Amino acid sequence: MAKINGKLEKQLWNAAIQLWSHGDLKPSEYTMPVLGLIFLKYTDTKFSSLGKNVSKTKTQAKGALFLQKKARYSYLMSLKEEEDINQAVNQAMKLIEKDNIDVRGILPKNYGQLPKDVLLNLLRNFNSIEGIMNGDVFGHVYEYFLGNFHKTTGEKGGEFFTPTSIVKLIVEIIEPYHGRILDPACGSGGMFVQSAEFIQRHKKEAMNELVIYGQEKTSQNVNISKMNLAVHALAGDIKQGNTYYNDIHKSLGKFDFVMANPPFNSKGIDKKKINDDARFSLGLPKNDNGNYIWIQIFYSALNNNGRAGFVMANSASDASNTEKGIRQKLIEEGGVDVIVAIDSNFFHTVTLPCTLWFLDKGKRKTERKNKVLFLDARGYFNQIDRAHREFKPEQIQFFGDIVRLYRREKPEFPNNKLLTKKFPKLKYKDIKGLCKLADLKDIQEQDYSLNPGRYVGIKPLPPMPKKEFRSKMESLNQEFIKLTQESHQLEKTIQKNIKQILK
């Protein structure tokens, strides 16, 4: 979930109330008309920042979309109430698509379904948005609608987008400086947006460094992803298709980087359709669970030096039977690089904890071939509100640099206080409760588990003062005596009742 300010959240909720109270759309259908207006507002802001009388060629060269007068948000705001505002918004979308090939055929043009007064209120509502979009705001908006209306109406959208801080951590660890990048479950395209920001942080232009490929099952998500790329001056080959059965991008051994947040524990996959698919050379799981199908989709797409980072259900780390066999092959091939345990409440609509997996085919040629780094990031978070958490920037930097130390790379943030406290010599070492570098023998002894908790252990508690320790022990002892007495009394009562029954 991208972090957006409270003002925009309030605007989103006001928009939702308008649509809910006065429109005929279902809650799951609110997203596209709202995203269309936010898209239009952001593109207008960026276009305006280039100055007056800018040509289409120069506009697009600067990573902005070219807008004719009637495609401008400001033009729509200038229309009188008696004019056909619904038709004007539809026309604006058509003009943008006509002038900008990257968004052709993807913008919403169904504003005729909205009552005129509702559309006017929506336009006014988002007119105060300022600045250029940062992060995966589109993903946040989509998930915000689904999450809030699930609470309010009981209607569940079934889509989940990856929190920005988790995406940033994935990017920090796989380091996508240059090359082809694939997300075969790309949702709103947030993985691509954060990869681009990583490159820009390193003083390069993402358009020149990344070649983007994505796949999504639903056409709506394809369109959201393309819109998201467009407002961030990115372009990519995003296609619609069921990734289980359709390898649209011919991914086998093709990519430098793979990033994804696939659906967890998917059921009902027709394995007969993929039995001979070369992507699943490690075998297909016998049970009805798609986790190890996804893991192989990511692994098989990597070239000989490729890295993958993805979100995975905790259960996959210890899954048994055929899944264990696939995991064992993956480990013994030297493909597994880093495993990170993540705390609960990071996602907007689900509370479960998860695990981040990182694969690296390039490590097979290094001394790290038979080693896996386990990190326990549980306990590291910023509490946004009662139900939501995120990583602080310094925590993302901290974990990224632990991985770099393990890889014998220079830390990017050597002055990070968390890093210098734990690693004062800026050299990797095992720290109980935080990180453990396990070799193949260690993993074999744990029956090929990839559960970080089995390796990292529990963080040692600070020593307790003698007086406090004595006080706690006395309190516990009193509680123990009380429970023991209650137990004896309960035992006598049971015996008495049994004697009564047996008379």
Describe the protein in words.
The protein has 503 residues and is α/β, with parallel strands linked by helices. The protein folds into 3 domains: 148 residues, Ferritin, CATH 1.20.1260; 255 residues, Vaccinia Virus protein VP39 (Rossmann fold, 3-Layer(aba) Sandwich), CATH 3.40.50.150; 37 residues. It is built from 18 helices and 11 strands. The strands form 2 sheets. It has a 9-stranded mixed sheet. A two-stranded antiparallel ribbon has the order 9-10. Helix 1 packs antiparallel against helix 6 and helix 8 crosses helix 9. It is globular.
How many distinct beta strands? 11
Q: Name the quaternary structure.
A: single chain
> How much β-strand is present in the residues?
5-15%
**From N to C, what is the helix and strand string?**
HHHHHHHHEHHEHEEHEHEEEEEHHEHHH
Shape: globular
Q: What is the CATH architecture annotation of the largest domain?
A: 3-Layer(aba) Sandwich
Q: How far is it from the N-terminal to the C-terminal residue, by CA?
A: 67 Å
Q: In the CATH hierarchy, what is the class of the largest domain?
A: Alpha Beta
Low-confidence stretches: 152-159
Biggest sheet statistics: 9 strands, mixed
Which radius of gyration do the C-alpha atoms yield? 27 Å
